[in-house]
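Problem 3 from the worked examples.
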Amino acid sequence: MDIYRSARFGVWLVAAAWAPLAALAQTPAELRNDANTPGDVLTYGMGQSLQRHTPLTQITPANAQRLVPVWNLSLDNSANASTQPLVIDGTMYVATHSHTVAIDAVTGRQKWKVPIELPADINGYLCCGIHSRGLAALNGVLYRTTLDAHVMALSMADGKMLWKVKAADYKQGYSMTHAPLIAGDTLITGISGGEYGVRGFLDGWDLKTGAKKWHRWTTATAGEKGAETWKPGMADTGGGPTWLTGSYDPELDLVYWGTGNGGPWNPAARGGDSLYICSVLALRPSTGEVVWHYQFSPGDPFDYDGTNELVLAEVPMGGKPTKVLMQANRNGFFYVIDRTTGKLLKADPFARKITWATGIDLATGRPIDTPSTAALRKTEEQTDFMDVWPSAFGGKNWMPMSYDPGRQLAFFNTINLGMKVKYVKQTRPGGPNWWLGLELGGFPAPEDGMRGALVAWDPATGKKVWEVPSKAPNWSGVLSTGGGVVFTGTQTGAFKAYDAKTGKEVWSFQTGSGISGLPIAWERNGRQYITVTSGAATVYAALAGDPELANIPAGSSVWTFALTP
């Protein structure tokens, strides 16, 4: 290919490459309407609101037992397959850490596979996992991020690179695993690396050239609003990573993006609330201007992050339909926020056990600390381990929920673990080393051995409708359907379907490896399909000591299911 480097933009461009095929054209209007057009899956989240719901009704609780595999395709690696495919004009597109793959969606035949060129030493610098969560697409072009912190545009027709730009230096601890977000005429990306003491940020890129339009840091340093919430100099390495994809409301023209933990985890080392870690930022996509913010876990003593998916919906609050943003936060509380103003409307506990706070004050928006939490915020070094619930894995981790707008219910996978932690003084080590400022003494499990559950939740009332406990927590995304079926996967390899009304299991299929993928639904020629990636290599499995996961084989692949005729 005729590739040259643009001195002006600092990106790699392919000469005369910007000529996407008309047959592959997607428009911004089609992206906005993705949730209502089930023939294709054009966006990460099956819609810019991240609801992960399909209106398709062909599969129901009554006939789900007739689901069978239509095809299976190996992804030829043993990394974590925590990705969501796109389906466009009969072709499925899948991102892994090492390749971008195009597949005939109906037959499962691979159409093209293009490698990602990564540095030979990349594994020595990665903070938190080897995987890619997905893609963005517009006008015949695929957009993705890479482990070495680059952003790429690829031709949808053949996978050839159109441009490539460096977002950060991976040797400083930065990486990228998330799907980009297209909002208007801007491509938005975040960054990973919070455990290495990086400084989080968001970038806005020109879709056609890769030129940087704006850059937004997520920690407030000297001279910036919020700088007083940090000890001097700490915000420069203060974390706030932006490692999961945000959502977009085109009517309000606001992007909602979550920020992660502080660096180090030790809150007394950072001081104060440490803005804007563990927050949601509402931004203008064209400029990166922050219109409002809300901080879920001020100071973040326990790695609770705020990066979990930010789902947009209209929910009856006080009997009035309200444009809201919802998040089941790692700290154990389910938040409902007015997405126009940033006002907190509800914050209810969903985790089975919460010991760090007794609740959330709706007037101030702040958590009500327990005495032990209040004390550790002021003490940089402890002599004894404290028992904290939820653990750093959270009451819920990154695996995204679904929201059924007809039933007005959210469905998500929870975690039920504690952690023993003791805060210590630690100088930032530099290089590829964790900077936590603490010692971990293990992850105690509940007495009944149920470390997780699939939960149905009513955001309007803040109440659990049903739950299905499990010995090992599920690490897969959730999909809900107009037919009343909820799909998710287990870390032991079972892809399962449940009745959305009751939580009764109605179907299960063993995929051969743990599932951390994000299921999607789509339709072709009158037939409804369900697709999920299998292949789990999670941080949880490596650190939690879960006996249920002792003999689960690795190996990533794509599975597609449909009803027998």
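Problem 4, a separate protein:
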Amino acid sequence: MKINGFKINITEEDLHHRVTEEVRQVILIDETSAAYQGLSEGDKKALKHLVNAAKIMNDVALEMDHPQNLVQKQALEVAAAESKYAADALQLFNMLNGVAGSNGIDKEPVEIFAGIHQFAGKNFYPTDMDEAEFQQIIGKMLDEGKIAEVKKILSARTMVRRNGDELKAIDYTEYFADEFSEIANELECAAHYTTDDLFKDYLGWQAQAFLQNNEEMDILADKHWAQMQETPLEFTVSRENYDDKMTPTLFSNQELCTRLNVHGIKPVPKDMLGVRVGIVNKEGTALLLKFKDEMLKLAALMPFADQYTQNVGKNKGLKQTMVDADIAALTGDYALCRGGITLAQNLPNNDKPALAHGGGRRNVYHRQVRASADKEKTQKILDALVIPELHQYYEEEADHLFTIGHENGHSLGPDSSYQTALGIYQHIIEEHKADMISATMMPEYVKAGIISEEQLKKIYTTWVVRRHFMIAFPNDMEAHRVADLIEYNFLKEYGAFWFDENKKLHIDFEKMKSGSRALLTEVIRVQLSKLPQTAKEFVERWTNWDEMNQYIADFKKNLGVKPYIEIVSYF
């Protein structure tokens, strides 16, 4: 079957199996939920306008991801009314939120249509441009003194198109002017209805940021967003740059990097946009704030703490809000469920100017995402791969506690200049760093009385089973999964855990503590080097895929892995 002249790349039988048997649902809240029912009438109305904004943003992200996403989706929607084959293809498209993407298992991306492939620069850059031409054009433009345009091209907030034998940058607010105007209108309507003055103020700033080609407006919106602790609603514009694999290639060209440096140009990968809408959960938030209280103490305990400026530290004070949220919408970047889905986020990221201008951070946790685990399958994994004595220490809530430590970890350690200097390895190293801060600092939370020694054992056990029992060798775009494999290899070699002759997991909890500290020290050393080659050597050293990895992967696949995620929305 062809859609817009492109043949569906997966057989009808295989496609139907994927969308019925290989799907895990994440069910978001509806109007019957206690969270929604507890809102004022004004905030209920505001929530629906925020969801409308989120839906519009999804089309923006589709355009950023691939030039054929929108046209293929529209064609599938028409064809789906007459064809079950097309309906299944549309369902897979919606789960990937695009024409192609990783499913976290197969080495190659899943491609719904024959002849439609992913691009290193997504649709941020011309899709017919490779790395060599990109670097050649940037060098040529520098030769010709077109410094201001190069700076725009290498900004996080521009779409880049050809201009003869050069490139030109178009700011998001211009490229997506129609969509951003609609989003701003929805935010202004939500601001009219919401009962919370601080939230109302933030929405006003965020609406203006969509309407003006002015980075200062993004800074102001981010600052206001990061200050909200007691507001009833959550609205997040996510701007993360993990998807752009073109811009970071500049860091491998030392001569070009030196030239850019001379002109004060700092290449920043493009931001993929997404929107999260939720209702703040007070009980869950209270737990997060207990962890927050320890962060300044933890900053002082970081390896080499005296050798760099901390993201947070006593010299700055802690500017960090944290909320647990019942989720009503996840769109755009949040809905790019390609091998996983976000449990929580710590924003703005280190590359964002709001942090350099005195702004703070905000952590938001997704209650509905973490509630979607398959408990029956987990028990089968425990029975087959973990000694019985450790079963008592596996607990889904422990994974949430680890995630809290991970997200807080992004606010600790060397600042953004150390991270971005690692080029294409920066995200792998940063996610790995956050993991190791969580694992290393958990004993400090025991000392503070926030968790018990028993909970610490649960955190370590659940971490290994959930994160290090992998289903496939990760590709280099899966920063979190590559980090998991690094941790598996290091801690296994350290003796923190091992497998017996029956291929069952054992854990030495004391070595988990010391091993985590040792690995955190190594990853901070990598960041401090500011050398992509050092990061490359570190990643290659610790990403071996051994027989036990394959045994675990095969076992999990035989259980029936569900690599595709369907976000079920009601608003």
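Solution to problem 4. The chain has a mean pLDDT of 94. The two ends are 33 Å apart (CA to CA).
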